[in-house]
Design a protein that fits this description.
337 residues, three-stranded mixed β-sheet
């Protein structure tokens, strides 16, 4: 039965008449500010309830109950839960209200509350979740409700619900049920182990060792260059720089090959090993090119410097042979100076 009071002063008078003497004695010991705040919250809850704002009314009654517990607050909070479509909260609150030793609870009010509890019980059921695997994290409609095994059933509103189970090393599963108002509905949640990933079997081809290369440059007899020394110095500088670049790429090739070896084991290599193998191959090619160019340029510079030092003209053509091997580099001068 809904109590409608249009006059706030009349409600305050009724409050004092309904409160038992023991509650009035306890109230005298509480700070007056707490009692005043609780009364104001209760008034706001009644106003929201009359206006059809049931969630706001429930929030006001909850706050008033925390400030000053009282059977009347419990009763109105249970009604607000029921009107807001929260039957589980309504049943729990109204059962707590009936358990209160309220001298103002007459048989008619008790019968009304009992009927309301019975009506709310028809709006929800309970789910008992079972599983053969312990430690499964259970979610009901996206809300965590514990792990298996569960000691008690889970209350939930009547209707469709989704139960999700997860655990490390297992494939997650979802079960959709249509819950009715039966005392208890059992749902079994079982998980399958995660399938083992197959190991990689592809092995990259080994990096071929660089083959010895020889470059032969035929240098025609010089025709009294205007500044052979400067040209020789420049050529030698270019050669030294190229050799330095080649050395850098050689170090990178060795590092990439070492990285490839680290990612290969047990008869298989992973994706990083394949990428390191490709890097090593590119660096090895750059090493060969840089070394060949550096040796050719350095050899040409050395030749020009020697020719300038002796200030002699060669009578025949001169042949400069530059070679790169796995153990080092070879420079050969052929012909006459």
């Amino acid at each position: 039965m809904q109590t409608r009071l249009d006059n706030r002063a009349l409600w305050v008078a009724a409050w004092w008449l309904l409160c038992p003497l023991s509650a009035a004695a306890e109230e005298a010991k509480r700070p007056q500010s707490d009692v005043a705040v609780a009364r104001q919250l209760f008034d706001w809850g009644l106003e929201h309830f009359r206006s059809g704002e049931f969630e706001a009314a429930a929030s006001d009654f909850e706050a008033a109950l925390r400030m000053k517990p009282h059977p009347s607050v419990l009763f109105n909070l249970g009604r607000a839960y029921a009107a807001a479509g929260r039957p589980i909260h309504a049943v729990n609150t109204l059962e707590q209200y009936l358990a209160q030793d309220d001298p103002n609870l007459n048989p008619q009010r008790r019968a009304q509350v009992t009927d309301l509890i019975a009506a709310q019980r028809r709006l929800f059921g309970t789910i008992r979740i079972t599983a053969t695997t312990p430690g499964i994290a259970i979610q009901l409609d996206g809300v965590a409700v514990g792990e298996t095994p569960q000691s008690s059933a889970i209350p939930a509103p009547v209707g469709k619900h989704t139960i999700r189970g997860t655990r490390n090393g297992f494939v997650p599963t979802e079960v959709t049920i249509e819950l009715d108002a039966s005392p208890e509905q059992e749902v079994e949640v079982n998980l399958e182990p995660q399938p083992q990933m197959p190991e990689a079997t592809a092995r990259p081809e080994p990096i071929p060792k660089p083959k010895p290369t020889t470059a032969v440059v035929s240098i025609p007899p010089p025709k009294a260059p205007s500044s052979p020394r400067r040209i020789g110095v420049a050529a030698l500088g270019v050669g030294v720089a190229a050799l330095g670049v080649g050395s850098y790429f050689a170090v990178r090739a060795q590092d990439s090959w070492a990285e490839r070896q680290q990612h290969c084991g047990g008869g298989s290599c992973d994706a990083r090993a394949v990428e390191a193998w490709r890097d090593a191959k590119r660096y090895a090619f750059a090493t060969d090119v840089s070394m060949a160019l550096g040796l050719v340029s350095a050899g040409a510079g050395i030749y020009l410097l020697i020719a300038n030092s002796f200030a002699q003209s060669s009578t025949t053509g001169t042949r400069l042979s530059v070679g790169a091997t796995s153990s080092g580099a070879v420079i050969q001068l052929g012909g006459a100076l």
